[in-house]
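Moderator note: this is an archived Q&A kept for reference. The question asked for a predicted structure of one protein chain; the sequence and the answer are reproduced below.
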Amino acid sequence: MQKKILFMVINMNVGGTEKALLNLIETMPKEKYNIKILMLEFSGGFLKSLPEWVKVEEIKGYEKMKEILHTPPKRIILNFIKNKKFMKAVYYLLIFLIVAIKNERSLLFAHLLRHQPIENNEYDVAVAYAGPMDFISYYITKKVRAKKKYQWIHFDVSEIGFNVQFATKLYKNFDKIFAVSRDGVNQLIRLVPSIKNKTEVFTNITIPENIVKLAKIGGGFQDNFNGIRVLTVGRLSKEKGQDLIIPVLAHLKYEGFNIRWYCIGDGNARNEYESMIKEYGIEDEFILMGAKHNPYPFMQQCDIYVQPSRHEGYCLTLAEAKCFNLPIISTKFAGVSEHITHLKTGLITETNSTSLHQAVREVIKNSKLKNELISNLKTENLNEATIIRKKKFSNL
């Protein structure tokens, strides 16, 4: 008999959380699982990557809810007044005042979802997967019937806008809370100690054989460059730290290295980064390549992989880069030590341009170190960790 599983996400944009979900689903055979993905927005570049047998639904009316959820309260009230909807203005003013006093938005969520029916189906497991995202957590606990409910945390809760009051109140309704790294679990328990006994590590799944196979599809780099290729993959945003590596490349260029740095990913910081690249005079050497469904040919062909993130939950791209036995350099964020061991399988730096520059320069200049990193990565059994995680989820 099939297990009925519901995963709830924001959308299927090209990102680490969404890719982790795709990988998890790939380990779940359709003979054993009946899977549905409930989305706030039916959008995203990874939609077409979902297996055909997985059901996908969108929450009706979320567009209107989104406007309330993401617009500053003052503007919402003023808009109602401007449109002469005075009763609504007063009603929302009261809601926002209570939300501010309690410092959590359960009352607002309850109001927005007041006409939303409870899901007809009863699931064996319902997962608030895009976490922490308070609206999704609330929806799973209040609008879904399931024998077991899980909350999945993909970020370092000490670094994002994590609402402790909300989590303390709502997370007690979940049977399990998973964080994607040991550091992530520790930070979560530190902030919400009442959930200690139901919180576990469940690191994101990578499937090395699939990644290596995908690297053979597509042409990879097409610019006929013969120097050192450095690659970074991630959404263009401050948390991913691309602003830290722009001056690093400028410094390396000044020192005479024949080098290009490629960034795969897109995001709201793109315009800012384009201005920085122009300011440092490295338009020909720092290449913003945009989002790519298949970054693996570029990983396979680059000389060094660099992850300059300010904070991460697990960092799936780092796990993927390891599949190609690359010299890897990463900043020190929660979970990085679960990927690489400093000076053995990669270099871990402080989160600043100076440390990143020193590390990249060292890998370029020190061929003995570079070869040791590559050799040590080749001896790691990446498939073993994937098999363990597959078994863990099947036993839940």
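Archived answer notes: The radius of gyration is 23 Å.
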